[in-house]
Specification:
By secondary structure, the protein is of the alpha/beta class. Helices cover about 40% and strands about 15% of the residues. The strands form 4 sheets. A 5-stranded parallel beta sheet has the order 3-2-1-4-15, sandwiched between helices. It has a 5-stranded parallel beta sheet with strand order 6-13-7-8-9. α1 crosses α3 and α3 packs across α7. It is globular, with a radius of gyration of 24 Å. The protein binds flavin-adenine dinucleotide (FAD) and iron/sulfur cluster.
Length: about 475
């Protein structure tokens, strides 16, 4: 086991803090913490064996050059480490915080595989980039030359923003349209503030704005402006709208008061992080305080709901999932975090109905795992007669998301979609069935990950630059 650096080894020479007031004590804390974090990052980075078969890198969707930036961090060359890290990732401090590293880079670290515990790659990535922001190493967006052509991006989530960043740095005029009042997509209104601080997201929004990206917010494409108008206005369009249609619950009593959608619940809680007035929190409708909460679902959204409910002061929080722990889609690390915080998991449990209006209980059907389906995954099936009621004052439905029917909503029958309703697009370029129209992120992949949306945004931006250059060459002939 590597030795943990301890705070007592940090020497900070200064006057007695208690004589200098609260502000000084806070400064001291940050300084001590920074030194501690620095020691911790170097210690972790130096654990990398530079194995030469960087599975961590191949399993990172951005193929980040992890071994190199770990080595540079271990050598104390942080600015260079940051340069290497940001070369392949538009938002490294965000990925460092919220990538499911246990399924990606860290899960494939050879030290983890040999049973010695992974190098904490995500934490080092976060540390390097947070330091870069503090030290002023993060370069503003300042194109060497302006271009006349413009790109309209629909959706200000990580996919749209990653594309905006690459295009703007190349001098393209970029306008991002979003139906919310703030940019960031699920980084802002989905993922809770205890996992991803909102100022970290807003700092990136400001960087893009200061670099010349125009944001048109509170603008729902299909309602406030038509898709056709955006298409006519720009040389290319990127659709980065994510997936927002919540899967619903059936069963008697499923329409009762007190049964709410996960995203409504998380959005309300995230708005509080911004200091917004949120009537649904004040009225108790979307507030878990003093309530027995049951969350239905086993993905990352369910984990965010249970952990938010704990923080809001719920009297009990239970998570109902129809398969077992090994077969749940969410990150095992998240489950462990939730358990440590006091969440109880009811495995092999499915909702059969609800009692009361407002809701007073979930009727739970006990399940077992049956034969594997076509994908090889065992299907849950009910155990006859095994039912019970789980008391609840607030039930949160976290059953996943599907795409909205964009061709119909936007009156674009030409826009080809898959049988799941996601947009059909080339996985490398994002090119859709419509010339000059590209698509990235969840609207192409289905509910996925931030790091994949970033990858798509970057790849598609590169393809769009080729498309714009080709169009310019034709015009010049
Ligand atoms: C609760 C929750 C927690 C998650 N936690 C994690 C996590 O910890 N780690 C991780 O990697 N991934 C996580 N994910 C998944 C991740 O957030 C998504 O994969 C990622 O945000 C997808 O990016 P995107 O840019 O495709 O779409 P989004 O982030 O969804 O952004 C789409 C944007 O398009 C806008 N939009 C949609 N329709 C229109 C329209 N008609 N007009 C104008 N604007 C429109 C939306 O307002 C939104 O801002 C989580 C998802 C959820 C729901
Ligand atoms: S982007 Fe995500 S997967 Fe890649 S190195 Fe960073 S934390 Fe790991």
């Amino acid at each position: 086991m590597a030795k943990q650096p301890m705070l007592k080894f940090v020497t900070v020479e200064r006057d007695m803090p208690e004589k200098r007031g609260a502000e000084a004590r806070r400064e001291d804390f940050h300084e001590i913490y920074a030194e501690y974090a620095d020691a911790k990052a170097k210690e972790q980075a130096s654990r990398c064996s530079q194995c030469g078969v960087p599975y961590c890198q191949t399993h990172c969707p951005l193929h980040n050059n992890i071994p190199d930036w770990l080595r540079l961090t271990a050598e104390g060359r942080l600015q260079e480490a940051y340069q290497v890290s940001q070369a392949t990732n538009t938002f490294p401090e965000i990925c460092g915080r919220i990538c499911p590293q246990d399924r990606l880079c860290e899960g494939n670290c050879v030290i983890e595989q040999s049973g010695h515990g992974t190098v904490t790659i995500g934490a080092v990535e976060k540390y390097i980039t947070d330091t870069a922001w503090e030290e002023g190493w993060v370069e503003p967006i300042a194109p060497a030359q302006e271009r006349a052509d413009s790109v309209g991006i629909i959706g200000a989530g990580p996919g749209g923003l990653a594309a905006a960043d690459v295009l703007r740095r190349a001098g393209v005029q970029v306008t991002v349209y979003d139906r919310y009042d703030r940019g960031g997509g699920l980084l802002t209104y989905g993922i809770p503030g205890f996992k991803l601080e909102k100022d970290v997201v807003m700092r990136r929004m400001e960087q893009l704005e200061q670099g010349g990206v125009e944001f048109v917010l509170n603008c729902d494409v299909g309602k406030d402006i038509q898709f056709e108008e955006i298409r006519n206005k720009h040389n290319a369009v990127v659709i980065a709208t994510g997936v927002y249609k919540s899967r619903d619950l059936q069963g008697p009593g499923s329409g009762a008061k007190g049964i709410v959608k996960a995203l409504d619940y998380l959005t309300a809680s995230n708005r509080l992080c911004f200091g917004d007035k949120v009537p649904e929190i004040e009225s108790g409708e979307l507030n878990a305080e003093g309530k027995r909460v049951v969350v239905i679902g086993g993905g990352d959204t369910a984990m965010d709901c249970v952990r938010t409910a704990i923080r809001q002061g719920a009297t009990s929080v239970k998570c109902l999932y129809r398969r077992d722990r090994e077969n749940m889609p969410g990150s095992q690390r998240e489950v462990q975090n939730a358990e440590e915080e006091g969440v109880e998991f009811l495995w092999l449990s499915a909702p059969k109905g609800f009692a009361g209006d407002p809701v007073t209980a979930v009727k739970v059907q006990q399940m077992r795992l049956g034969q594997p389906d076509a994908t090889g995954r065992q299907s849950p099936e009910p155990i006859e007669g095994a039912e019970h009621e789980e008391p609840a004052d607030l039930v949160i439905k976290a059953l996943g998301f599907e795409p909205e029917e964009l061709p119909t909503l936007w009156n674009q029958e030409e826009l080809a979609v898959t049988r799941w309703g996601t947009i059909k697009a080339d996985f490398t370029t994002g090119q859709t069935s419509m010339p000059g129209v590209f698509a990235v992120g969840d609207i192409v992949r289905g509910a996925s990950l931030v790091v994949w949306a970033i990858r798509d945004g970057r790849d598609s931006a590169a393809a769009i630059l080729d498309h714009l250059n080709a169009a310019q060459s034709v015009a010049a002939e």
